[in-house]
């Protein structure tokens, strides 16, 4: 078992609700026939060996909540020298992404159908990831539900512990209040530094990040989007030598 920050040893609140929805026949078939090929079986006692999974040594990017997988597949297809692990709990999304992997022959993309926080806690080795993508997580807008947000100090500390020094955490949201929440939590993490000038609240959408269907719907309604990119320091700021 990989080491988990002490602040996260008693987590019981879920950051998602399992809304499975209706799976199409092709999504069901993909889960049955393609998950054994492109999926990773959940084993909480076996840390992932990325070199064995992808049959090579390359930077690894974890995507938390890949949705229907269209943007995930597009990013992986455009970056064949990088390996991607998509973690998603919802069956229709996993099935759709498996179909995209097979159709496009994406040998650099795998899927793990499980709770992303348990994945981080149990099977992602420390300092093993080059990046984590967290695009449009549930904002849990009601105040009494804010405790369910995935961007919390202890959860961010867990994510950062899995990043290599110099690796980045990229969050995107179209919920303004959540964007401010994210900034506050990310700014407070001593092992993270903002990858964009401090004078700007967020950065423009990077050209490499495709718009998701969900994002496009929001923008059609006039919803702005905030991209926040933070990079892991080699050491906490209070232990860095003074200039």
TrEMBL record:
Single GO cellular component term: tRNA methyltransferase complex
Amino-acid positions noted as binding substrate in the UniProt annotation, renumbered to this chain: 142, 174, 212-215
Protein keywords: Methyltransferase, S-adenosyl-L-methionine, Transferase, tRNA processing
Source taxon at top rank: Bacteria
Catalytic activity: guanosine(46) in tRNA + S-adenosyl-L-methionine = N(7)-methylguanosine(46) in tRNA + S-adenosyl-L-homocysteine
Broad enzyme group: transferase
GO MF term (any one): tRNA (guanine(46)-N7)-methyltransferase activity
Sequence positions that bind S-adenosyl-L-methionine: 63, 88, 115, 138
Keyword Methyltransferase: yes
EC number, UniProt record: 2.1.1.33
HAMAP family associated with the record: tRNA_methyltr_TrmB (MF_01057)
Similarity comment: Belongs to the class I-like SAM-binding methyltransferase superfamily. TrmB family.
Role of this protein: Catalyzes the formation of N(7)-methylguanine at position 46 (m7G46) in tRNA.
Protein name stated in the entry: tRNA (guanine-N(7)-)-methyltransferase
UniProt organism field: Hydrogenophilus thermoluteolus
Phylogenetic placement of the source organism: Bacteria, Pseudomonadati, Pseudomonadota, Hydrogenophilia, Hydrogenophilales
């Amino acid at each position: 078992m990989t080491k988990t920050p002490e602040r996260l040893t008693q987590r019981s609140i879920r950051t998602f609700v399992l809304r499975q929805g209706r799976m199409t026949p092709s999504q069901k078939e993909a889960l049955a026939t393609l998950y054994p090929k492109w999926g990773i079986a959940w084993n909480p006692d076996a840390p992932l060996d990325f070199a064995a999974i992808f049959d090579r040594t390359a930077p690894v990017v974890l995507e938390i909540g890949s949705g229907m997988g269209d943007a995930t597949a597009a990013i992986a297809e455009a970056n064949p020298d990088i390996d991607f692990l998509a973690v998603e709990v919802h069956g229709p999304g996993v099935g759709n992404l498996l179909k995209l992997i097979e159709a496009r022959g994406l040998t650099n993309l795998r899927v793990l159908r499980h709770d992303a926080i348990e994945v981080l806690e149990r099977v992602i080795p420390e300092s093993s990831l080059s990046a984590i993508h967290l695009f449009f997580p549930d904002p849990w807008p009601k105040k009494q539900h804010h405790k369910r947000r995935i961007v919390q100090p202890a959860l961010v500390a867990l994510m950062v512990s899995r990043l290599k020094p110099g690796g980045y955490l990229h969050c995107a949201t179209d919920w303004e209040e959540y964007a401010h929440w994210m900034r506050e939590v990310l700014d407070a993490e001593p092992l993270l530094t903002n990858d964009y000038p401090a004078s700007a609240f967020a950065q423009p959408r990077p050209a490499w990040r495709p718009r998701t269907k969900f994002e496009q719907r929001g923008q059609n309604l006039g919803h702005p989007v905030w991209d926040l990119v933070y990079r892991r320091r080699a050491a906490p700021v209070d232990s860095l030598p003074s200039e």
